[in-house]
Amino acid sequence: MLNFITWDVSPDIFSLGPVTVRWYGLLFAMAFVLTQPIEKYIYRKDGRTDEDVDILTMYMIIGTVIGARLGHCLFYDPGYYLSNPLEILKIWEGGLASHGGTIGILLSLYLFCRKYKFDYLWVLDRIVIVTALGGACIRLGNLMNSEIIGRPTDVAWAFKFVRNNELFNGVPAYVDPRHPTQLYESLFCVFLFILLYVLWKRGAGQVRGLLFGLFVTLLFSFRFLVEFLKENQEEFENALPLNMGQWLSIPLVLVGIAVLFYAARQPKTPRKVTA
């Protein structure tokens, strides 16, 4: 009886001359296309305009791309990229880190709030709702690329990534059925989106920091745990007691908990849009 799913999906959708359209790029773009109307709805309900969201989205895109790329280069292979800095610009060759993307988003939104006089936590509480949905799209992109795969397993929903030729302990990845950790993370992000949206609808957005703190705590706690099911992305991680994704998740979980404690001290704080 078949006890695994054969995953043989091409990462390319189609090619037109020298231009190739890939699933990852499409899903990365969809992360912004799908979430912008939702964010505009949230902003209208909270008394803001569509123009605010349009400007905010541009800051988000720039912060996400730069942060995720620099995060991958500096967290996972700093020696190579610092010796070959021009390689950092070759984003089309792949290599984005979600932790770096998180830092990039936080910094870009800080700049947005400083320039346009928004309250930082007010913005973060609303942006994390759609960020969760965007994260689900990006992890589906990883699945289409057959990358960031899980460890071998015999669960019935295991995936055999036949297009992945990476070696793990000397064995090609395509040999064994593996945990589809990209799918686990994508589904968890959908759950987070629903949870945060429902809480916002019930007025949780009135408590500064509550939604942001909950998002960061839950997302990176899950990320810490799911890393136990993943193969390490770089060889140096094999010598560490925890992999790089887990080390990077710990401070973000602590930040989330600290923000939740802050929010708990002001449960009836009125909405504050501007700084």
Automatic annotation (TrEMBL):
Membrane-spanning intervals of the chain: 13-34, 55-76, 96-113, 120-141, 183-200, 207-226, 246-264
InterPro entries registered for this protein in UniProt: Lgt (IPR001640)
Annotated compartments: Cell membrane
Annotated EC: 2.5.1.145
GO biological process: lipoprotein biosynthetic process
GO MF, one annotated term: phosphatidylglycerol-prolipoprotein diacylglyceryl transferase activity
Family note: Belongs to the Lgt family.
Biological role stated in the UniProt entry: Catalyzes the transfer of the diacylglyceryl group from phosphatidylglycerol to the sulfhydryl group of the N-terminal cysteine of a prolipoprotein, the first step in the formation of mature lipoproteins.
Name of protein: Phosphatidylglycerol--prolipoprotein diacylglyceryl transferase
Natural source organism: Rufibacter latericius
